[in-house]
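[job 0417] fold request received: Pyrimidine/purine nucleoside phosphorylase
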Amino acid sequence: MDNFENVNIIKKANVYFEGKVTSRTVVFGSGERKTLGIMMPGEYEFGTADKEIIEILAGKLDVLLPGAENWLSVEAGQEFEVKSNSKFQLKVTELTDYCCSYVK
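[job 0417] inference complete; emitting structure tokens
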């Protein structure tokens, strides 16, 4: 899906790691929620309550998923899933544009 229709966008940005990771929340009529954001190069750890599907629109990063021993390289056109109630680590190697879908 290249565009979203009939959505509400929360104007206030989600800002993490001193502005190195930012996103905006998109809410669909069904209540489904996604975020669209940018990550600057760096190393980050995130926690999630809901299952997340993270689609990389541009850029490249490495992710260490919960319970994994090896880092997974992900680049534009690819996605990865993070199970609910977990933490995951990212090594962003270049400016990365992403879309995160939250699955209840």
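[job 0417] notes: The chain is about 0% helix and 65% strand. The beta strands are 7-9, 14-16, 21-28, 33-39, 42-48, 51-64, 72-75, 79-82, 86-103.
[job 0417] exit 0
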